[in-house]
Fold this protein.
Amino acid sequence: MARFVKTGEKQVAAISTASLPDIVFITLFFFMAITTLRETDVLVTVRIPEATEGKILEKKSLASFIYIGEPLETFQTMYGTEPKIQLNDTFKEIVDIQDFIAQEREQLNEADKTKMLVVLKIDENTKMGVVTDVKQALRRASALKIMYANVNVDKITLHQ
Amino acid sequence: MADIAFLLLIFFLAVTTLDTDTGLMRQLPAIPDPNMPQDVNKINDRNILEVKVNKDNLLLVEGELTQFSQLREITHRFIVNAQNSPDMPEKELVSLPYFGDVEVTKAVISLQNDIGTKYGVYIAVQNELIAARNSLRESLAVETFGVPYDKLDEEKKGAVDDFYKVPISEAEPKRIGEN
């Protein structure tokens, strides 16, 4: 009968780590490429409404964001609980929108100025009065391309 | 080397936001120039689908209280006007690239809201209107070109858009329904 003969201590070969830097670098480049740095801190609570027909925002560099919603709890002592407009990092009023748009437009290069897009991120419980005022202000600032931000779903559940 | 790369990797991992923004694209009308003569081209009443959302978030289509779930169907029927009924939108003979001489609808949707309307409801209604139009464009694209609308090139997309133009207009805001 054949016998297995133990020939000394057999070592498990260590996994080569030579390729580790390569793998890490590839992952690093991947994340570097897809990263967009968060530019503003949102100071308002925004529950974005649901929709089924939303299109993906393709050129983020052309977009300016306007947030409307209840101020976060930490700001409520100062600003109350009524929906506020947030431009960049501060709470603003309707009259400031024109300046904001002019400023944002200034940052785009000449060819892109006409393609400027304003993304409205508005809480679903906001009353249309504020929204209409903002829309009118945008028309006055001739920023006519807008996008109502929404969450894409298959079926809308309406909370009336 | 690997350590530095790791540090960088962790940094980028931490700051990455993967969320993509989606939304409904709309074009606002330009403010009419007071010095220019007003456009007196009145749209025929039968061509307009009047959609209103009041301050209690109730939906009125052509003045009638309507369930939200029916809106898409109603809009669809309005645009198509299969029986050519006289109180539904007219059709107009135009020549379009890829389609030749075809009858296209002159339908317009007018969306109105009160000051007190909830934004979420307003968006839901807009979404239904856009969805009705999109589904018509989609089926037209599949019928004529055999490919879904998204896969068409810009020219063909434009032709399909012209076939079902159906502008969704937002009325000049009125200060109604305050409180």
